[in-house]
Amino acid sequence: MADTVTMPKLGFDMAEGTLVRWVIAEGQPVAKGAVLAEIETDKATVEVESAFEGVLALQLVPEGTVVPVNTPIAVVAAPGENVERPGEAGMATPEEMPARPAPVAQAAAPAVASTVVEPEMAGLSGSIKASPLARRMAAEKGIDLRIVKGSGPGGRIVRKDVEGYQALAQAVAPAVTAAPALAASKAAAATLPAVTLTPLGPTPADETIPLNRLRAAIGRRMVEAKNQVPHFYVSHEYDMAPVMELRKQINAMLPDNEKLSVNDFILKAVALTLRQFPNLNASLQGSEILRHGQVNVGVAVAVDGGLLTVVCRDTDRKPLRQISTEVKTMAGRAREGKVRPEDIEGSTFSVSNLGMFDVENFIAIINPPEAAILAVGSVREVPVVKNGQIVPGMRMKATISVDHRVSDGAEAARFMQAMAPYLEEPLRLML
User: What is the pLDDT of residues 276-329, one digit of tens each?
Assistant: First the structure.
């Protein structure tokens, strides 16, 4: 019996997605768990895996179509099974399905995965293999697809290739223009003092940049969160010297690709503390508070054009090395625009860490429907007072944002206090 694949719902606020590319063609075999297609949501480009095994009998939706969630997009059948194409037996045709052309603004592109080549390396003859999305973007930006090399299957040009080519062109143009001036500057440097003033040049013209889908979605959700969720904030400063020392000892025994980050310790500490404060590991549902049994900590990941939250499930039950590996893997997929549905679904509490940017302290906006989020600053070497003496210390500031409809300041303060023993006596995290 044939099985129908539908547009998945990735997140409680997703209403539709754009089918960007079919990975498996009609008539090809499909294994359970195989990637059927790539879809683009407000958050990211996501790979759709098949829950069925057989043959991809029908593709019901063409590439570049925006499709509402739960709408059929494909049919997987047994080998040799006869499946009628929509329209042959009174079924709705793809044109009759509720879809529309994809919008101009796109979701976030991979941060480092763009592939760019020199014009002479690109295919200048024959037909150009490019996705509808790439063709539309190239037309809007005035880019000749003949000089762009594709990184997709069979050299197919996809969105990231167009964006990568444009980024290179913008970077190269100023460098080429400035080359003569740079040569003259070097020639004159021998007769000038060591410190000189560099001319600023003409004031750049104003530039209007349309919001991509990810940035628009972030803006919409954050406005809703700030308008509808009554935030309050509690900050705490932690002694991180023990964590830094233990991390140093552990990393000395691990290969480079498995070394632990400070954030890994924080995620485990947060998860264990949430066991004691189920009210903060919760969601508000109408007039009821849903306390989640699982502790699934979401981790904010910066991607090109916005922010994604990947989810480490059962964080309280996993060892530090497993937490570290899972978060690195999911963050890598997020930056490459290849997140999976399970990567970004089901968080019960979130952590946003800007410590790697030398940020001392900040506050974060709650990610609905969660009840709280923790904003983490950098670990700093600062003077501290111990036994009446000023000595060097390692300190980190963190601030929790909480939905006042779910909890109060005293509970949030106790949570921040209860997390201190895990960070200041980090061997607790290894038990």
Answer: 999 999 999 888 999 999 999 999 999 887 888 999 999 999 999 999 999 999
**What DSSP string runs through 212-278?**
PHHHHHHHHHHHHHHHHS-EEEEEEEEE-HHHHHHHHHHHTTS-GGGPPPHHHHHHHHHHHHHHH-T
Q: What domains lie within the chain, and their CATH numbers? A: 3-101 (2.40.50.100), 108-183 (4.10.320.10), 213-430 (3.30.559.10)
> Is position 231 annotated as part of the catalytic site?
no
- Tell me the pLDDT tens digit for each residue of 341-353: 889 889 999 999 9
User: How many angstroms separate the CA atoms of 36 and 31, rounded?
Assistant: 10
Structure tokens at 165: 């080519």
Tokens coding 150: 């594709």
Token pair of 261, please?
A: 């980050």
How far is the C-alpha of 163 from the C-alpha of 333, rounded, in Å? 18
Q: Which of 231, 236, 292, 404 is catalytic?
A: 404
Q: What are the helix (H) ranges across 142-212?
A: 159-189
